[in-house]
C-alpha cells in the first residue's frame, strides 16, 4: 500500500473503514483504506503496487450461499454477512483459484451449499473446494 505521509490521518481512516467491515484485513478493505485516505487529502511517501489487490477485484470474489440460493451477487467483504465461504466469479489466468461456475460444473449445488455452511461454522479451517473437504494440513491464522 505504501508508507503514509500523515500517519494520524491514516489511522483515523483505517479505523473508520475497519468499523464498516466484519472481516479485516482483506485486500478489498486495504484498497478501500487507500482510496479513502487519498480522498481525504493524504499522500504516500513511497507507493507500492500490489498486484494481489487488483487481482482480487478483477476476479470478483462473492459469497457462495447467497449466489447459489437466491442468485444474488454479494461481495465477499459485505458488512452484513458473517460468511467465510467465497469463490471468484471470473478466471484471470492459471493462478486464479477454482471459480464458482467451475465448482458448479464439478459438484451438485446442494453439496456445495452444505460445504459452504460447514466452512462458515469452522472459520479456522481451509476448504479444498475441488474435493469438498477440509484441508487438515492447513489452518488459517486468525486476523484481528
Task: Kindly estimate the percentage of residues that lie in beta strands according to DSSP.
Answer: 15-25%
Q: Look at the helices and sheets and give the structural class.
A: alpha+beta
Task: Detail the poorly predicted runs.
Answer: none
Distance N terminus to C terminus? 19 Å
**Mean pLDDT score:** 81
Description of the molecule:
The protein is an alpha+beta fold. Helices cover 43% and strands 15% of the residues. The protein has six helices and six strands, in the order βααβαβαβααββ. It has a two-stranded antiparallel ribbon with strand order 1-2. The chain has a two-stranded antiparallel ribbon with strand order 3-4. Strand 5 and strand 6 form a beta hairpin. The longest helix is centred in the first third of the chain and has 13 residues, at 7-19. The radius of gyration is 17 Å and the shape is elongated. The two termini are 19 Å apart.
Helices and strands in order, then pairings?
Blueprint: E1 3-4, H1 7-19, H2 27-39, E2 44-46, H3 51-59, E3 61-63, H4 64-70, E4 86-88, H5 100-106, H6 109-121, E5 125-128, E6 133-139
Antiparallel strand pairs: 1-2, 3-4, 5-6
Helix pairs in contact: 1-2, 2-3, 4-6
Question: What's this, in brief?
Answer:
The chain is of the alpha+beta class and 144 residues long. It has helices at residues 7-19, 27-39, 51-59, 64-70, 100-106, 109-121, and strands at residues 3-4, 44-46, 61-63, 86-88, 125-128, 133-139.
Which labels suit this protein?
144 residues, two-stranded antiparallel ribbon, 6 helices
